[in-house]
């Protein structure tokens, strides 16, 4: 959606093949003037610093950040190893902190910026179908959103989050039929969220018209959680 609207977009993945596949799917939208693909480890401070320097040299300036990196864990507490726990935090929380920290100086210099964090309904409910590490990290990412928003607001930078539930992705579509049936019965609107609906919310939060929305977590769950 952002590429279609003329944004110059940095596209990241930590897996080179996954990045290549995404670029193939985007097809004619990908060109060297509008799209900058880059592969790096978002959980490693040195890797992030090197990647941000490359982006600054080749594709400046970056004043909008969507923190959408992360992994899913369905493991319950009894089966959770400390290694899986730490890896989930590294992927879902550390990555957002490291990339935000790296890009904030330029946003502060411009006195304008937008950061959007992909949170989750699991961070508010403890998770309907997710494990303890995933739910806890999404709760941490929500609090990170609040803290960073308060810190950056006077610099002209807004920080917000989106808490979706069950976006229609290949992962969700691969759920067992019984689980899909159960979830669709629980979700008041009776369907999963479309990827374009999530993208539209991102587009609004990064626009100038959202400048007075700061430190909010936008629920996008079809009525599964109402507050």
Automatic annotation (TrEMBL):
InterPro entries: NAD(P)-bd_dom_sf, Sc_DH/Rdtase_CS, SDR, SDR_fam. It is an enzyme of class 1 (oxidoreductase). GO terms for biological process: monocarboxylic acid metabolic process. Its EC number is 1.1.1.100. Keywords: Oxidoreductase. It comes from the Eukaryota. Signal peptide: none annotated. Pfam families: adh_short_C2. SUPFAM superfamilies: NAD(P)-binding Rossmann-fold domains. It catalyses: a (3R)-hydroxyacyl-[ACP] + NADP(+) = a 3-oxoacyl-[ACP] + NADPH + H(+). One of its GO terms (molecular function) is 3-oxoacyl-[acyl-carrier-protein] reductase (NADPH) activity. PANTHER family: 3-OXOACYL-(ACYL-CARRIER-PROTEIN) REDUCTASE, 3-OXOACYL-[ACYL-CARRIER-PROTEIN] REDUCTASE FABG. This is 3-oxoacyl-[acyl-carrier-protein] reductase. It comes from Chondrus crispus (Carrageen Irish moss).
